[in-house]
Amino acid sequence: MADRTPRLYNTLTRTTEAVEPREEGHLRFYSCGPTVYNYAHIGNFRSFLTADLILRTARAIGWETTYVSNITDVGHLTQDDLVDPSGEDRMAQALEREGERFANIYDLARYYSDALLRDWHALNLRDPDVRPRATEHVTDQLEAVIKLVDSGHAYVTDKGVYFSVETAPDYGKLSGNREAEQLQATERDIVEDEGKRDPRDFALWKLDENHLMKWHSPWGWGYPGWHIECSVMGMRYLGDQFDLHAGGEDLIFPHHECEVAQNEALAGHEVIPYWVHTRFLQVEGEKMSKSKGNFYTVRDLIAPDPDDEHVPDAIRQQGGVDPLALRYALLSGQYRKPFNFTLKTLRDSARAVKRYRDVQARLDEALQSTSETAAATGLAESLRESYEEALDAMCDDLNTPGSLAAALKGVKAIEQADSLSAADARTATEWLHDINNLLGIVEPQHAATERTGGSDGDDDFAEQVESLIRERADARSAGDYDRADAIRDELDEMGVEVKDNPDGTTWERKGL
Ligand code: AMP
Ligand code: ZN
Prior knowledge:
single chain; Rossmann fold; Isoleucyl-tRNA Synthetase, Domain 1; 3 domains; 15 helices; 15% strand; binds adenosine monophosphate
């Protein structure tokens, strides 16, 4: 394999650069995960997918990787676009919205993080090496805040602890928002804290003894600011000098700008040299929004509620699309270009994924062939070229459309071969395996596909239902009836009817 170095657009330097890990051949990176207050939508997954592709590309060129992607379960506020995020905690707001469905806020967090993992696996995203939760790292966060106060980078008011932006001369280097006037509080942002010394200062710790998730601190009861969570979890698992940080474009400011300031104040030097941001996904040419009816969660598309009219009929009628078709559709736009998700893209993607499946079936058959000599002239060479081109495209700032097109050349070469010997089939199967490792579009890697319709996913579906039923039985024996009910609701949403009989629990699909 030719020597390759992936190139990525670095928001920090505003150029496309060769990525050179600090330790040769070992990429350490962090990607901002979701706030678990709802089901993740396809836009969230476009961002998570970028991290997955960085991982797959690094592995394909033979690097080792350490990949951390967090779960935010406290402190992410509704007005997170403001210099100093304010508003209501998204988690608390969700608990209000969901009413009786959850026993408490931790239960809600667990429910939506379980749902996230199922979607994550259905879309063939590789698991990170560590998936830290903010609530499990509050002690680390408090230590960091204390250190920032002690070193003069932060100060305490009666509303919380603030990072003093004045002490970070490079503040603004990531987003370009350098001028104090630019950062002046907008009308909404006149944060009701007279004690704040500079409108640019942002909260590291918010004092609030009534907050649903609260911890005791040297300054009183409260909870951590959203930005410090990611700084601390990143450095906890990757050290104070790691390689790369990824997230959606909305996070450049203030979230990542504030992370840079905190990291550098804590470490005393630059912590992360490469910053990668995914452009927002739009649906049918418009920003996704519930009011426009073009807001899709992953489950809306792969396991829709049959009665949910906001999901297009065509998708509901087939019980949801193949999750790999959805992944393919998300890959069809490069992460840094505006991406317009349409039903047409989804249809085309489903056809492409089917071509892979058909080719795979043909190869499985040909593997049984008695002819050992290569029958398809030039096939091995075409496949080698296809893979090299697909990998080159990924190294070129994750050019996924280019990579998919190169991979399809390999599919076409197999389709066009008149006959395949066992040797051809072995070569082509290996090629398919490599393409799948690179792009994740051929074979589901986890059993947890959530498709309710069709027959392909039936075994996986049954396995998943049974596991939920076991979990529900455990919850009931532990007296956790709220959890048991939440699981029943989840099964209900999956179109499963559960019957509790004296000699055990049985289930069936509704309406079948
Ligand atoms: P959140 O759960 O709001 O913290 O978002 C999780 C991730 O999804 C972040 O990296 C966001 O930047 C990203 N994100 C949110 N909406 C979109 C979108 N429409 N397109 C791409 N990424 C998004
Ligand atoms: Zn983050």
